[in-house]
Amino acid sequence: MFAKDIGIDLGTANVLIHVKGKGIVLDEPAVVAIDKQSNKVLAVGEEASKMVGRTPGNIVAIRPMRDGVIADFDVTEAMLRHFINKLKVKGFLSKPRILICCPTNITSVEQKAIQDAAEKSGGKKIYLEEEPKVAAIGAGMDIFQPSGNMVIDIGGGTTDVAVLSMGDIVTSESIKAAGDMFDNDIIQAIKRKHKLHIGERTAETIKKSIATVFRGSRKEEMDIRGRDMVSGLPRTITINSEEIREALNESIEMIVQSAKNVLERTPPELSADIIDRGIFLTGGGALMHGIDQLLAEELKVPVFVSDNPLSCVAVGTGILLDNISKSGRY
Ligand SMILES: Nc1ncnc2c1ncn2[C@@H]1O[C@H](COP(=O)(O)OP(=O)(O)OP(=O)(O)O)[C@@H](O)[C@H]1O
């Protein structure tokens, strides 16, 4: 075993781990399956994710960090420890420095608890960082210069909008309109319109396969299955991109509004830089069809989807660990 710096993107939907010199070595859903009677952890990550919505009564598959807050701390700790131990088995770790990016909304008590869990798992020195900052670094922005950079990180539980300069956040906002809310919007709309009950996985598949947020930019159809709310029997219906766009409209409008709020609070010199450089989108929600077009039209600034938006934070942890002295915070 050898010491390596490791970076962890402790997201509400996915956990990614970056090891210095190796790149991303772990990428799994932030899900834990638990036996309700004994409180024992039965499975973590990929394996637990397969159980979501399909567990018998005594087993629950939960996402401990859902909504960008730590809903269940013990389970979050168990999950973090499981993933770090998995690296140990692979022979990666011996007293590494660990940089963890966690949701922006967590309390200082929760931050301390995450730090403790990482220490107990063998970390020599633990650093915590804010997600939008690391996402911007991972998207290739040089946030350490005295100029304005804007990032919108659309994750599972939260969307973080931030303007950064000289290595720090100048203005920011964090809202709950993000991937999970989009899935729920789709579930509710299909209930209302088609009287059909669908699960979270189906909603996510719809979101990825036929959804769009920009009117007229995608015209696709898809057959979906669910449970008829009246007869209780399985039923198949056909849905299209436009009805999903309508379902997502309110949540997307919240993201647009949040970006406008942050821009309004941005000092004019930094605003000028943002017009020149554009806004970068990171996080899985950046892959929503048409989101760049819509934001560019609403904000009157160029908008770019970063390369590999799902792994920006993990890549950013690697870059930040390499330049830790630059950050000045450690
Ligand atoms: N192709 C796609 N189109 C739309 N959404 C997608 C796509 N791929 C992934 N997503 C969504 O991205 C979200 C997960 O993104 P990500 O892994 O960046 O979140 P996270 O970092 O775990 O969450 P948070 O930033 O809230 O802590 C999920 O809601 C997922 O459904």
UniProtKB/TrEMBL annotation:
<keyword id="KW-0547">Nucleotide-binding</keyword>
<protein>
    <recommendedName>
        <fullName>Cell shape-determining protein MreB</fullName>
    </recommendedName>
</protein>
<dbReference type="Pfam" id="PF06723">
    <property type="entry name" value="MreB_Mbl"/>
</dbReference>
<feature type="binding site">
    <location>
        <begin position="156"/>
        <end position="158"/>
    </location>
    <ligand>
        <name>ATP</name>
    </ligand>
</feature>
<feature type="binding site">
    <location>
        <begin position="12"/>
        <end position="14"/>
    </location>
    <ligand>
        <name>ATP</name>
    </ligand>
</feature>
<dbReference type="InterPro" id="IPR056546">
    <property type="entry name" value="MreB_MamK-like"/>
</dbReference>
<dbReference type="GO" id="GO:0005737">
    <property type="term" value="C:cytoplasm"/>
</dbReference>
<comment type="function">
    <text>Forms membrane-associated dynamic filaments that are essential for cell shape determination. Acts by regulating cell wall synthesis and cell elongation, and thus cell shape. A feedback loop between cell geometry and MreB localization may maintain elongated cell shape by targeting cell wall growth to regions of negative cell wall curvature.</text>
</comment>
<dbReference type="GO" id="GO:0000902">
    <property type="term" value="P:cell morphogenesis"/>
</dbReference>
<dbReference type="GO" id="GO:0008360">
    <property type="term" value="P:regulation of cell shape"/>
</dbReference>
<dbReference type="InterPro" id="IPR043129">
    <property type="entry name" value="ATPase_NBD"/>
</dbReference>
<keyword id="KW-0133">Cell shape</keyword>
<comment type="subunit">
    <text>Forms polymers.</text>
</comment>
<comment type="similarity">
    <text>Belongs to the FtsA/MreB family.</text>
</comment>
<dbReference type="InterPro" id="IPR004753">
    <property type="entry name" value="MreB"/>
</dbReference>
<dbReference type="GO" id="GO:0005524">
    <property type="term" value="F:ATP binding"/>
</dbReference>
<feature type="binding site">
    <location>
        <begin position="284"/>
        <end position="287"/>
    </location>
    <ligand>
        <name>ATP</name>
    </ligand>
</feature>
<keyword id="KW-0067">ATP-binding</keyword>
<keyword id="KW-0963">Cytoplasm</keyword>
<feature type="binding site">
    <location>
        <begin position="204"/>
        <end position="207"/>
    </location>
    <ligand>
        <name>ATP</name>
    </ligand>
</feature>
